[in-house]
Amino acid sequence: MNRRNSPGDDQAGRRPEGVGRTRCGQTMAVLIRSMTKTYGIGPSAVTAIDKVTVSFPVGSFTAVMGPSGSGKSTLLQCAAGLERLDSGTVSIAGVELAGLGETALTRLRRDRVGFVFQSFNLLPSLTAAQNVELPLRLAGRKPDPNAVRAALGAVGLADRARHRPSELSGGQQQRVAIARALVAAPDVLFADEPTGALDTSTSRDVLGLLTGLVTERKQTVIMVTHDPMAAAYADRVIFLADGRVADTLGHTTPEIIAARVTQLEVSAS
Fold first, then answer.
1. Pairwise CA distance, residues 65 & 79, whole Å
2. What gap in Å lies between CA 177 and CA 190, rounded to an integer?
3. Environment class of residue 150 by beta-carbon count within 10 Å: exposed (0-12), middle (13-18) or buried (19+)?
4. Residues contacting 108, CB < 8 A, separation 6+
5. 58: number of CA atoms within 13 Å, CB side?
6. What is the pTM of this model?
7. Cβ atoms 207, 230 nearer than 8 A
8. In what order do the strands lie in the sheet containing 113-117?
9. Cα dist. 58→30, 120, 140, 219 in Å?
10. Confidence of residue 25 (pLDDT cuts 50, 70, 90)
11. Order of strands across the sheet with 46-57?
12. Alpha-carbon distance 72 to 118, whole Å?
């Protein structure tokens, strides 16, 4: 699955020196600085994200947690370029989103970003392979059969390519959704509650898959979840409260994560 050049690459297809790196030289898949997003105007305005600054290294698995209404999904959607910021900046693979027009932003999302939803969003009339191909066809690109097979193989569904969603389990459907997000070889995979509709056993399978993508393919995964068990698979857990980063933990246990979420919920009540 070859990645195409995009804004931020030079004419030879190489990323400019130092782009997407911190001062210490660590490469970042996503850089967020002073992100602010408000919905509504006047007295009824709600600030969903309030001057958040955070970065996500290449090849890392980050979980984002927090009480209901803390801004988790808004952070994910703004970081993925699905929503525009009111202020602040987001850079993906060294490309600042604010400087892009709609066409360039769409192209960057198509080539650099993968997004996995809780509800799978598969078309029931299409096979697994056809669902994986769909983003490429919508972008006017002829799907590479080898790339489609590789994406399905990466999620353990090479033998289910011709099955329709109704012929697949919930976990298999989510795997197809992940393959669809991976087919363009994105720099970062965003996942919004990817195990929220799955049972415990199937959730573990999907989380194991995401972990494998990070450890084996150096994929960058940013996952919003409400489940401490799911968050415990991540290298790092970022906690939001009232639209701000309230805490950050390294890889730890579900019990410690659950206790921290409970503290934030009590503080918010």
1. 15
2. 12
3. middle
4. 6, 7, 81, 92, 95, 97, 100
5. 18
6. 0.86
7. yes
8. 113-117, 188-192, 220-224, 61-65, 236-241, 244-250
9. 8, 25, 28, 7
10. low
11. 46-57, 28-39, 87-92, 95-96
12. 14
pLDDT at 18: 33
Domain at 60-80+101-268, CATH homologous superfamily: P-loop containing nucleotide triphosphate hydrolases (3.40.50.300)
| pLDDT tens per residue across span 140-196 | 888 899 989 999 998 999 999 999 999 999 999 999 999 999 888 888 999 999 998
The residue among 93, 121, 89 whose CA lies nearest residue 28 is 93
- Tokens describing residue 226: 């409400």
Secondary structure, 3-state, the chain: CCCCCCCCCCCCCCCCCCCCECCCCCEEEEEEEEEEEEECCHHHCEEEEEEEEEEEECCCEEEEECCCCCCHHHHHHHHCCCCCCCEEEEEECCEEHHHCCHHHHHHHHHHHEEEEECCCCCCCCCCHHHHHHHHHHHCCCCCCHHHHHHHHHHCCCHHHCCCCHHHCCHHHHHHHHHHHHHCCCCCEEEEECCCCCCCHHHHHHHHHHHHHHHHHHCCEEEEECCCHHHHCCCCEEEEEECCEEEEEEECCCHHHHHHHHHHHHHHHC
Whole-number Cα distances in Å, 219 to 43, 182, 238, 260 = 42, 10, 18, 27
Tokens 């995401």 map to which residue? 210
170-182 and 200-217 helices cross at what angle (nearest 10)?
20
